[in-house]
Amino acid sequence: MFRLKSLDANVEAIINPPPKPRPSPGMPLLNGNVSQFLAGQPRGFTNVAVAAAVFHKDRLLLVQRADTDSYPGHWELPGGSADPSDKSISESVARELFEETGLKMKRILVEILPPTTFSTGWGKRQKTWLKASFVIEITAESKARAEHEVEMQGSGQELSRKDSVVAVDPPAVKLSDEEHQKYIWITAEEVIKNRVSMPGEGTMEFIGSDSVSTILEAFRLNKHMQKAELMQALQVTKAEEGKA
């Protein structure tokens, strides 16, 4: 169990650290199944878990675990176990995202490094997990927020906010009631300060410091990709102006 306390920190410094060498994400491994994916990793892992980071502008989707589940009330990225029946790790990510949020994945954009590890069970029943997380893009269908989709949600609802986040119209989310009870589109600053501007809610709890590090790295990668897209758009505009 891990609670990220409020930090007197600069958000820009955390999600935009000085450049440093990064290992290759190994994206080709995503086309293989669980066994093939594990074969390309260090030995000792028996299972694979996956998680999806979905952004709407500068806000990230987090879901809160149900009170009846393990780690009740804790916040996390949508995700779960990669099943042996999944044809690929990419399929595992898409399946888990849809099962937990009703959102459909279009493609994986980048892997969030490093992956995290954890164990479950004891003795002969112990399993060692490698958790791979990815920033993904959802389909245009999922991006379109429709009123009837919101009405069709289960008991899990979007947290009421004091700010104007609803005005940005993020995609509609349909939670799996057995696994999650609430969801939120959150900013990096709110994660760092461990507090969301909403009535009746205190600090947020996460499952371990590794999960917080993964979330903040997702924000950093998303901002980097947004800058790259902006630069590309500017180059296209200049090229078109040159032809005029």
Overview of this protein structure:
The structure is a single chain. The protein has 244 residues and is of the alpha+beta class. The protein has a single domain, classed as Nucleoside Triphosphate Pyrophosphohydrolase. Helix content is 30%, strand content 24%. Strands 1, 2, 3, 4, 5, 6, 7 and 8 form an 8-stranded mixed beta sheet that branches. β5 (105-120) and β6 form a beta hairpin. Mean pLDDT is 78; it is low at 1-10, 17-26, 146-155 and 160-167. It holds the Pfam family NUDIX. This is Nudix hydrolase domain-containing protein.
Outline:
With 244 residues, the chain is of the alpha+beta class.
Average predicted confidence as pLDDT: 78
CATH topology: Nucleoside Triphosphate Pyrophosphohydrolase
- Structural class by helix and strand composition: alpha+beta
**Helical segment count:** 7
Indicate the overall shape: globular
What is the beta-strand fraction?
15-25%
CATH superfamily: Nucleoside Triphosphate Pyrophosphohydrolase
Number of domain units: 1
Number of strands: 8
Helicity, in percent?
25-40%
Q: What's the order of the H and E elements?
A: HHEEEEHEEHHEEHH
CATH class: Alpha Beta
Regions with pLDDT < 50 over 5+ consecutive residues? Answer: 1-10, 17-26, 146-155, 160-167
Which CATH architecture would you pick? Alpha-Beta Complex
Largest sheet: 8 strands, mixed
Give the end-to-end Cα distance, rounded to a whole number of Å: 60 Å
Domain Nudix hydrolase: 45-208
Protein name: Nudix hydrolase domain-containing protein
InterPro entries: NUDIX_hydrolase-like_dom_sf (IPR015797), NUDIX_hydrolase_dom (IPR000086)
Pfam family, one: NUDIX
